Amino acid sequence: MVDAVLFDLDGVIVDSEPVWEEVRRAYVAEHGGVWQPDTQRRLMGMSTGEWAAYLSDELGVDRSAEQVAAEVVAEMTERYARRVPLIDSADGVVRRTAARWPLGLASSSPSRLIAAALDATGLAGAFVATLSTEETARGKPAPDVWLAVAERMDVDPRRCVAVEDSSNGVRSAAAAGCRVVAVPHGSYPLDPDAEALAAVLLPSIGALTPELLAELG
Hints:
Number of strands: 6
Largest sheet: 6 strands, parallel
Strand content: 5-15%
Strand order of the largest sheet: 3-2-1-4-5-6
Distance between the termini: 4 Å
Order of helices and strands: EHHHHHEHEHEHEHEH
Shape: globular
Radius of gyration: 16 Å
């Protein structure tokens, strides 16, 4: 039985991963750092503190981690103010799912970007609980954020379905005990080990139906 459905935000509801990559790549170049071939894959799922420290310490950006976080998030906030890139049909999927199960949101985005995205898409009222990895000890692939959201909702994570797009997100949700529906972004395919952890692999968020979710129970 499925007691709740837990969604990631970036790459599942909003197509923000390319925006994050564009903003952080430009920031690294502007501040003397060097973007590495595996940087984007490593960043996906990190908490704000983790990726800010990575840019500052590992990529050679000439700013403190605190400055990196503040300045990159400010640029993302400006981008969202102009347009939140909602993934086609994601809002309808969320609303259909919310009509049947309580929903949680477990995101690596900062809390203010989560709020901006949900307000702009009209989905704020669909979720019983939302949580940023800013509020947990570790970002994804650690399970902390999923466990914390399940605790806030008073549900057993082993009786939850998690919807994720990235390798670190899938690893994170699986480590929390959730059954994972993976909807990988076309530009960021799953690593083989992460794909093996998913109960279901979907080509798009529009393929996520209440019937499919019920079968996972």
